Amino acid sequence: MHKILTLNNISPLGLQRLPREQYEIGSEISDPDGILLRSFKMHDMEIPESVAAIGRAGAGVNNIPVEAMTSRGVPVFNAPGANANAVKELVLAGLLMASRNIHGAMRFAADVEGDDAAISVAVEAGKKNFVGSELPSKTLGVIGLGAIGVRVANAALSLGMKVVGYDPLISVQSAWQLSSGVEKAVSLDHLFSQCDAITVHVPLIDATRGIVNAERLKMMPKGGIIVNLARGGICDDAAVLASLDSGHSHCYVADFPTAALLKHPKVLAFPHLGASTNEAEENCAMMVADSVREFLEDGTVTNSVNFPEAHMPRTSGHRITIANANVPNMVGQISTLLANAGQNIADLLNKSRGDIAYTIVDLDAEISDETIAAIRSIKGVLSVRHLRATA
Ligand SMILES: NC(=O)C1=CN([C@@H]2O[C@H](COP(=O)(O)OP(=O)(O)OC[C@H]3O[C@@H](n4cnc5c(N)ncnc54)[C@H](O)[C@@H]3O)[C@@H](O)[C@H]2O)C=CC1
Ligand SMILES: O=C(O)C(=O)COP(=O)(O)O
Prior knowledge:
Elements: E1 2-6, H1 12-15, E2 23-26, E3 34-37, E4 53-56, H2 66-71, E5 76-77, H3 84-99, H4 102-111, H5 116-126, E6 139-143, H6 147-158, E7 162-166, H7 172-177, E8 183-184, H8 188-194, E9 197-200, H9 214-219, E10 224-228, H10 237-245, E11 249-254, H11 259-263, E12 267-269, H12 278-298, E13 318-324, H13 330-340, E14 345-353, E15 356-363, H14 369-376, E16 381-388
Parallel strand pairs: 1-2, 1-3, 3-4, 4-5, 6-7, 6-9, 7-8, 9-10, 10-11, 11-12
Antiparallel strand pairs: 13-15, 13-16, 14-15
Helix pairs in contact: 3-6
Bound molecules: 1,4-dihydronicotinamide adenine dinucleotide and 2-oxo-3-(phosphonooxy)propanoic acid.
2-oxo-3-(phosphonooxy)propanoic acid (HPV) binds next to loops.
Pathway: Amino-acid biosynthesis
EC number: 1.1.1.95
Pfam families: 2-Hacid_dh (PF00389), 2-Hacid_dh_C (PF02826)
């Protein structure tokens, strides 16, 4: 019997992928071997040693201590692309609302009092304060061209906007999906200098914290719209508010409100609503439940953010995945050790993700516990995960 701890509400369609005869699921489970969650912040939580897999029913994993899990050899799974359409639609809604001043206009309309004739007079007098502008004359900058960014860029093109994208790490899959009408910016500064609106679709990591800052906002033409449905912290909120107050920027659409943002009349604040559609909740839950189940049942790794290449064939083969700090000669040391242990290495692949480098070794035979222990003891090795074939 596997035990799954849920830290947020997970769509029943996802939980149904874990049969009751084999899975005990709940929010109070002790010694779980799997955890399923959405945005619950795990950083302050003591994660039981029993946990072998963590599944994030969504995209962003900055609420999970991924590095610590990597060094414990615990894969963290997410649901790539499963909520991307939902976020795209809310970005488009935000852009349209901002360019047509809808939030201010609705507040104005809600406050109008009197009978129908009085309302009509007040509306006709007041509407001049909410004259908007149209999207086809505007250029949108899309920062981060992953699952969401690509969809936003392609949709904005179809609305008649000019679109400029920036993503130095774009995946092959995204590059294929991106419309050829999207221009590429050579740098972020280049993007800001030509865009009337910008939208961020990058993960919150050191390299992306504060990329929307005071200097770059000044590079935008007057009247700019800033959209952040990615994460608080990617935009320097104080700089955005200062730009709104100075009259340089027009509107800030934000999905991660703070007290300062909620109070500001030029901020269109959503309550972290990007992924909140029935479809996205179901897609994410099903995808991540499948990943956790397959891993717990036969070691298959699909959609892991920290062991991305460790897919284990079900019927044959032996593989070790070694997460390591980027130490020179480590791969050489591992190869020598394996060769000395009489292991024929079928394939040895080096990968990296963020600060962590991976070495993935496909072996033609079972590897001994002593050899695994020897690899673990090499300086700089963070974790060694040995996946054995089950059939
Ligand atoms: N508001 C909400 O409810 C939601 C928010 N999100 C946020 O949106 C983010 C993006 O989601 P997806 O598009 O699904 O992820 P993704 O992983 O498909 O795309 C992220 C893209 O950012 C790019 N990137 C990474 N570092 C970069 C940098 N320094 N400069 C430019 N590009 C960079 C990557 O190459 C990748 O193409 C998530 O990490 C999450 O934080 C995602 C879903 C829902
Ligand atoms: O998928 C993401 O990164 C999100 O931010 C969605 O968060 P949620 O699952 O709605 O709490």
